[in-house]
Amino acid sequence: MSAVLSAPTLSRRAFVRGLVATPLVAGRPVLAQDDARASEAPAGAGDIALLNVLLAVEVATLAAYRRAVACNLLDPALQDAAGRHAADHRAHRDLLAASIRALGGEPHGAPRRQDPGPGWRTAAEALDDVVRRERSGADACLRFIPALRARQLAKVVARIAADEAMHWTLLNAALGRKPPGAALAFGA
Predict the structure, then answer these.
(1) Secondary structure element (H or E) that encloses residue 171, with its range
(2) Where in the sequence is the domain holding 152, given as residue range(s)?
(3) CB–CB of 120/37 below 8 Å?
């Protein structure tokens, strides 16, 4: 108990400096390392490479949403959901690109030219590609979290994984599909 009482306390100036150094607003680039985690290994080329893979996944998922919406098979509720999910993916894309730049890297998630879709006849066919990409995105995020050296980056990637899993679940429910039958279905 005496060790707790004798621990040094932060001055007001050190506390405020710590707040300023830590991103507090959603959407700001995540810094590679903050003063409060001085013992944490700094982010580096490995983190940049992993973030670039996730950026490419986000860009591909956005393209899948564009193709699904462009086919004009989705009912208004699915069109609305696709629009909201695509907005989330744009936010993910922008955050990942900004984080890569903050680490000194160059984002490599440029979209490739893709065909408008292979002649789908139903909304379910149009959304199958999107559903697969949402699942792949969630799985990729969950596999990369332990490999990221910067804790703040890992936290952001975990939040992106949660969004991907939520999108996958909502789209499958809208299509009348059952949720996974077992625990720990994502990230395997």
Answers:
(1) helix 151-174
(2) 44-109+116-174
(3) no
Asked, for residue 164, whether it belongs to a domain, the answer is yes
Span 99-144, pLDDT tens digits = 999 999 999 866 665 655 667 889 998 899 999 999 999 999 999 9
**157 domain-assigned:** yes
Which tokens go with 187?
């990230």
DSSP label at 184?
Answer: S
The answer to whether the beta carbons of residues 88 and 78 sit under 8 Å apart is no
34 within some domain? no
- Confirm whether 12 is domain-assigned: no
Domain count, the chain: 1
DSSP 112-154: PP--S-S---SHHHHHHHHHHHHHHHHHHHHHHGGG-S-HHHH
Helix residue ranges, H only, 27-122 = 45-70, 76-102
CATH code of the domain in which 133 resides? 1.20.1260.10
Q: How far apart are CA 184 and CA 156, in angstroms?
A: 20
**Alpha-carbon gap, residue 154 to 38, rounded angstroms:** 16
Calculate the average pLDDT of the chain.
Answer: 79
Tell me 41's DSSP state: P
